[in-house]
Design goal:
The protein is mainly alpha-helical. It folds into two domains: 120 residues, Hypothetical protein af1432 (Orthogonal Bundle); 88 residues, Hypothetical protein af1432, CATH 1.10.3210.50. Helices cover 57% and strands 0% of the residues. The protein contains nine helices and no strands. α3 crosses α6 and α4 runs antiparallel to α5. It is elongated and about 65 Å long.
Length: 221
Amino acid sequence: MHTLISWEDRFTQYLLSHLDTTDGSHDLHHFKRVWHTAAAINEQEEHPADPLILLTAAYFHDIISLPKNHPDAATSSRLSADKTAAILPAHFPDFPAEKIPSVQHAIHAHSFSAQVMPLTPEAKILQDADRMEAIGAIGIARVFYTAGLLHKQLFDPQDPLAKHRDLNDKEFALDHFQQKLLKLPALMNTSTGKKMADRHAAYLLDFMERIQTEIAGPVRL
């Protein structure tokens, strides 16, 4: 009987040699953070999720992550779910076969753009944990990292917070905060995830205030 730690070690070793390492926002460190957040949420749940399903889904949820500007980007989670369902019996034949459909569903439903309703505790927690990566300090880093890959502008220098124009996160990275990220706390499935998200979203608001101040010019000493 394998422990969660041994499964995590095995998944890590597999991903070290099979994962596409060109996307720094969907790397092994991202998978590990999502798992740790998911485990923390699960500890607070009245009816906990299956930890092995949750661990597996966290480690493979972005095994395929198409670029944000790819026409089929919204299918990434379905492709990841299908690929994981093939990887597990081929490379981990002792993985419980009856758990694979639940792993698939959790992976498919985690994505914001896939618009799939999470129906299981594992899917709800994984979705919350992954969304936590989009807000707070790590979320800010990932927004601007992705903006660089896509050659976006950092912000509209004339109206950085879009007070007098429509939001456009396809052109301005900072617009993504209001267009999507600050809406995430209200979409959390778990009460623990909601509390975490509210704290992280407050950091985004502080950052927006700070960047607007710096754009306006240096403070006179």
